Amino acid sequence: MSSPRRRRFCTTATRGPTVFPNTGRWLIFGVVLIPVYVVVIAWFTGVPRDTKTGLLGVGYLVGLTSGMWAEMFVLTILIGPVFFGSVPEPIGSVGP
After folding, report:
1. Which sequence spans correspond to the domains of the chain?
2. Which residue spans traverse the membrane (predicted)?
3. How far apart are CA 73 and CA 68, in angstroms?
4. Residue pair 10/19 in contact by the 8 Å Cβ criterion
């Protein structure tokens, strides 16, 4: 009697060389954002080191990113009723 085959907890979309679901995500997080990763690492490991300036830069990045996410959320809420007749799912009712 053979042992039951163990299932890995991944879907078809996450199989492959990376755990990212599709090409777009690894392209964005792995290729496009490499300069950002290098800059953030350089703020804290470069010479001369200035932790205060590095934290200020990280604060700016977090502020810009969260500002863009909040703005996109508000636009999504406004565009929903105008073009689709109801608010999107997290705010409105689920399903048709």
Report:
1. 14-49, 60-96
2. 26-46, 58-84
3. 9
4. yes
